Give the backbone structure.
Amino acid sequence: MASDMKVKKTPESLDLNITNRCNLRCSYCSHFTSAGDTDTDLSTEEWLMFFRELKDCAVKEVCLAGGEPLIREDLRELINGIRDNRMRFSILSNGTLITEELIDFIKSTGRCNSFQVSIDGPGPESHDIFRGKGTFERALAGLRVLIKHKIPATVRVTIHKFNYKELDKVAELLLEDVGLPSFSTNTAGHVGLCRENKDAIQLNAEEYSLTITKLFELNKKYDGRIQAQAGPLASGAHWKEMQRAFDANEAGFSSCGYLRSCGGVFSKLAVRSDGIMIPCIQIPHVELGRINKDSLKEVWLNHPELKRLRDRRDTSLKDFEFCKDCKFIPYCRGGCPALAYTLTGNENNPSPDACYRTFLNAGGKLPEI
Amino acid sequence: MELNKQYPIANSMIVFREEFDDWAVLFDPDANETFGLNPVSAFIWKKMDGKHTQADILKLLKEECDDVPDDAPVHIKGFLADMEKRGLVGFEQA
């Protein structure tokens, strides 16, 4: 079955790692030790020049990440450049460098779509253990500044071995005490520094099962205010639906049976801190060209590596030894290409990380809820 | 409103994104709002450069497209009025 996804004339949004620097070294950071860890930051003028090209390409939004984007001394100039070139922006931050003055400025632009802060626990113990002493208090203080200034704040909770039993308290802190409308969750994936520390960080099948159950319970209690695009909550929900459909002998789901988990390469692109264009922040080893040297539009429409990643949608899961005899193929989309690469060496393989059969074989269980 | 004496000009702060099959979207980054444009509306938007009157645009549309209906001027006028109301278009007088 051929994919019917069309490629837009230009990307709608871009993820920009505007710096390689960070004031922290979180044990599961996806950036450091990856191919995106370039030890180079572009000048202000280089980014501003690129923003002008983004305007010409009618790009609507950029997401500023790193490293820690707030560490750039010229952040206001960059944000002004984004605003002047008719774009909106989001920021992914560890939250520890937030100041009243900076947030005042961000508020004044009127263009901030979201500002994400990482908070991993209800208190310092389970947050600071992997992010560094004192980081919980600083991140929480930063979050409160965002809320005070009515910036659209979001929180990402990375679930690991030391916080998966504390999710009740995390939800209480973020949804009741801080008053966020929602927060999102994930686990630390097999990327960046997590690869070196996985045994201390990543959940085993039993812990993963308990986490799915707990997140389902909390979402019932908080009316669905906990969200996820990946990790236990997202996988748990999809796996439950897969199991239900299989038990009911239903035909496969739409778009399943092929490598179709991610449509990012049809609408987005990313740039490393050294100016190299890449398909996704999590696929930094696939180099597509350099900003201000190679045409963004040309790269977007014609680069063979992007075509290869887009064509993964036409690859049947039946073609893989990994999926051989799997009864869930008609309900499966194969998982994240970035994790497929770090776990198997090829983005166009299914990812073992999101595999329901692998989860069951390891003793994983889904909740009755 | 005289079709030959007004020159519609697109709000320069609005992002015009051409998507698939000649369809397009307008994006207002301040309001964070998006408006869809069908191929004819997208064609008209691209001619709103302050140099073409509505009559000019109608003429160009007839050159570009087959079977332009007789009431096209009414639709163009309505489209521009709607765009003006949303702050997406202004008019320069001859």
